[in-house]
Design a protein that fits this description.
By secondary structure, the chain is α/β, with parallel strands linked by helices. 32% of the residues lie in helices and 22% in strands. It has 2 domains: 156 residues, no CATH class; 148 residues, Rossmann fold (3-Layer(aba) Sandwich), CATH 3.40.50.720. The protein is built from 11 helices and 15 strands. A 6-stranded parallel beta sheet has the order 12-11-10-13-14-15, with helices on both faces. A 5-stranded antiparallel beta sheet has the order 3-2-1-5-4. A 4-stranded antiparallel beta sheet has the order 7-6-9-8, covered by helices on one side. It starts with a helix and ends in a 29-residue tail after the last helix.
Length: 338
């Protein structure tokens, strides 16, 4: 689950604590081209304010209208939109898509505080709700589990957020960090060089002056982590790669030309890295978009990271890259790590 849904829970917690009546609305099933996936959350307040999304907007408008006209459900209940072609058009569901929701009243907020605290520690947790009895509990979850609904019990998995570790605090890193924040990454920048870390000023990011390999170990990189080395200083970039390539991080990339990437791989081979671990390196980093400016390079890097995160084959790579372009004739996708 992405951080947007965690933000919905945080807002629900605050509204409930302020004395409002609050309802949570969860997408449980979709058919056709419904805009939001199962597990997507919306929080509805008693005066019609909402946060989050379950559709393109028209379903939200109908839910708001129901509350403002006195429809206040007091137990978990199912709502279905888009059963007919006319309803699909009315509620903005493309291609006749259907949407099934669970609307439930909040009775306490302690479980939300628990979920938020545990996901902040990068734990995976699941919320299990029995629609018939209303019984609810929060329990540990395992990586690879997703949203489930068997007709009676709804189980939603929360956390952890996607993380990005950027090595180097130069101009490219600033632009990259700003864009990564907008793409739902929790961003940490690491640069022990005093002339760089003194000028880091990107709100919403974390900063470390420690050595890159120490930061990797401290962060305990997981399959929701990406590492981007962009200092142009082998002493720093190689240092982080030695640890990051052995980690479960879903993406590890380093800035540099094809020649420099080949030299880097030769240096890495002198240490305790296997050929498979070295082969995980994305370099030259990013998709081949003809990028020149820091913003264009940042877009190319993030485009590659998002493609890898979504399990999409990389087809826009420079010839001779450490991670070559996929053969488009096979329609092969990379392994889905989400």
């Amino acid at each position: 689950m992405d951080s947007l849904d965690l933000q919905v829970l945080a807002q629900a917690h605050d509204w409930f604590a302020a004395g409002h009546k609050v309802w949570l609305v969860t997408v449980i099933e979709t058919w056709g081209s419904a805009p939001r996936p199962p597990g997507a959350l919306l929080c509805l307040r008693d005066d019609g304010l909402v946060v989050g999304s379950v559709s393109g907007g028209c379903v939200e408008d109908d839910l708001i209208d129901r509350v403002r006209h006195g429809e206040r459900v007091d137990a978990p209940s199912l709502i279905t939109y888009g059963v007919t072609k006319e309803e699909a058009a009315r509620f903005g569901l493309p291609c006749g898509g259907n949407l099934r929701l669970v609307q439930e009243p909040m009775r306490d907020s302690a479980w939300i505080a628990d979920v938020l605290a545990r996901t902040a520690r990068h734990e995976l947790v699941a919320r299990r709700l029995d629609l018939r009895s209303g019984e609810m509990r929060v329990e540990p979850a395992s990586r690879g589990e997703g949203f489930e609904f068997d007709g009676r019990v709804m189980r939603a998995v929360f956390g952890p957020r996607w993380r990005m570790l950027i090595i180097g605090a130069g101009q490219l890193s600033r632009v990259l960090a700003q864009m990564a924040l907008a793409l739902d990454f929790d961003v940490t920048c690491c640069d022990p060089r005093e002339e760089y870390h003194l000028t880091w000023d990107v709100p919403g990011t974390h900063f470390s002056k420690s050595m890159p390999d120490e930061v990797v170990l401290e962060m305990q990189l997981d399959p929701h982590s990406a590492v981007v080395a962009v200092t142009h200083d082998p002493k720093l970039d190689d240092l982080v790669l030695l640890e990051a390539l052995k980690s479960p991080a879903f993406y590890v990339g380093a800035l540099g030309s094809r020649v420099n990437t080949a030299k880097r791989k030769e240096r890495l081979a002198l240490f305790d890295l296997t050929a498979g671990e070295i082969g995980r390196l994305h370099g030259p980093i990013g998709l081949d978009l003809g990028s020149k400016t820091p913003a264009e390079i940042a877009i190319a890097i993030l485009a590659e990271i998002i493609a890898v995160r979504n399990g999409v084959a990389l087809v826009q790579k420079k010839e001779g890259s450490a991670m070559p372009a996929a053969d488009t004739t096979t329609n092969t996708k990379l392994k889905d790590i989400s």
